[in-house]
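Handover notes (outgoing to incoming on-call)

Open items:
1. Aspartate--tRNA ligase: sequence verified, structure written out, both below. Nothing else pending on this one.
2. Nothing else urgent.
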Amino acid sequence: SEEGFLEIETPMLGKTTPEGARDYLVPSRIHPGCFYGLPQSPQLYKQLLMCSGFDRYIQIARCFRDEDLRADRQPEFTQIDMELSFVDVDDVIDVNERYLAKIFKEVLDVDVQLPIQRMTWQEAMDRFGSDKPDLRFGMELTDVTEVVKGCGFGVFTGAIENGGSVRGINAKGQGAMPRKKIDKLTAFVKDYGAKGLAYIALQEDGSVKSSFAKFMSEEEMSALISAMGGEPGDLLLFAADKNKVVWDSLGALRVELAKELDLLDKDEFRFVWITEFPQFEWSDEQGRYLAMHHPFTMPMEEDLPLLEQGELGKVRAKAYDIVLNGNEIGGGSVRIHQNDIQEKMFEALGFTKEQAHTQFGFLLEAFKYGVPPHAGLAYGLDRLVMLMAKQDSIRDVIAFPKIKDASCLMTEAPTPADAKQLEELGLEVKAETEE
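Aspartate--tRNA ligase structure tokens:
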């Protein structure tokens, strides 16, 4: 290619690893009781290629994930997958900006403004309540925690005392929104864990309707309205809870309002790079930190001491996503290429040396022979095409897509296998017993 990439195909029948989403398993006839895993991504292979002296790899790769299909996911999908040696974050971003500019110009005759705007994960969450912000409209989140921390409204002060925050969005010109509609929005944010929505409706005649005015003094109300940039005719909506709940609910509410107010122009393409993701995220389910991307993501150099000290919640990763109109179309990271950092990473994730070796021994072994600094990125081809074709779902751009329960309407797959096939594979199907 112009940029010096070599297209290399990696195996579909690979090793199954229990980390992350579920693998699709393929039983081996020749090795009874053993299974291949279909690749969730060519991650390990492409890192091995970097160890082997290929410095720029690209592949249009089929990937498989056996997960519950949330809105707009498919069990099999296509990635444009790449990996580069001797690079850092900026190099990967540069190559990909040229790539995006080229395909948007050639396919749609759209000029992508370079360089593409960049934003840290923290800034994206604080301003938009989302790590894939849609920049086609405003309605940014405003943190009013400091403004209301001494007020008389228990919902606000309670959230702050529990280490949370109070944030709001200003729906310009929506001050006359009927109460019923506000109740609908309140029900909407409850799906994201919020307990409710507090609101201030500023009427055109200067009067104020609010769900919590009786708990606030006039000074407190006017300080809050001015902090939100509220003007007559505006509707101010607030959430108070743990940061994650406030971000999730207001971030989703912001997009929901934009849809209702018809602020989303499909002919406008607003790209943004999100950088400096957290290295770890806390799992309530498992009661421990998990890797936000995968265990091979390089932490930012200045945060390595935090990894040593076990302050995992503060470690930032050299990871980046490319976002278009509120959709993550690609993501990647700089990979760890030093054994000692990789071992610390496994340790932080609670892997024993044996577990790490069982799952990733072949990669760690290759690393012993010297591995160049490397980084990569993969695009979701289906999602990228969906946005370019101005469609609402990836099913609209895939031939023979699966439906929600991962079945194919055309061929009726999956279907029971023939008894002879099962016997050859040494498998038997247990009938589901009624509980």
